[in-house]
Amino acid sequence: GNSVTQMEGPVTLSEEAFLTINCTYTATGYPSLFWYVQYPGEGLQLLLKATKADDKGSNKGFEATYRKETTSFHLEKGSVQVSDSAVYFCALSLRAGNNRKLIWGLGTSLAVNP
Amino acid sequence: DTAVSQTPKYLVTQMGNDKSIKCEQNLGHDTMYWYKQDSKKFLKIMFSYNNKELIINETVPNRFSPKSPDKAHLNLHINSLELGDSAVYFCASSNSGTDYGYTFGSGTRLTVV
Lengths: 114, 113
What we know:
- By secondary structure, chain A is mainly β.
- Chain A has strands at residues 3-6, 11-14, 19-21, 23-26, 32-38, 44-50, 56-59, 62-65, 75-77, 86-96, 99-104, 108-113.
- In chain B, a hairpin with an 8-residue loop joins strand 9 and strand 10.
- The model of chain B has no long low-confidence stretch (mean pLDDT 92).
- The A-B interface holds A 32, 34, 36, 38, 42-46, 49, 51, 87, 89, 93, 95, 98-102, 104, 106-107, 109 and B 4, 31, 40-43, 45, 48, 50, 55-56, 90, 92, 94, 96-99, 101-107.
């Protein structure tokens, strides 16, 4: 079936450290891939996306590349800040009839210490 | 100009009560969703409506009933509330057939005591 697997958290880093949050997927067809971020007490926000193989999504210093050969979409940031502390969700989108269905990962909590 | 707005933001109620959560979106999207997020941040889709028509109805107790009076609104009514219903409920919207992603509301934290 279709699924998304994220590395388990919590991830704790010091400010300016390098961040990688792993995400791999299984899917029939050709999914689009997303990263969403949920800051404390807020709803989820779209962080970045990629709709086809080898696409790179980027936003706010975060990047992720759609790797079809490894079925991965790892999230990276070169230098994290305290304000990046949040829960990060990887998701894939597949067509279901005339609609699209999102399959979610379990989320990875990130805490950045000053 | 809030894109997806939910009310109330917090809801504390006793077991056995009936309550409603309202959601409105002003993005012109044709699809709306209700999600439940538990204390471990796990997201579970509950319902999805496309142009007022129910298209996703996951395994959710019959006590939960969505209502979509028009495509900009999707309300959630919960009967006979139980302790296990305590969670954060998120409304979201999107355009079907596109991959622009979902826009989420800020959530309703429901606490059943």
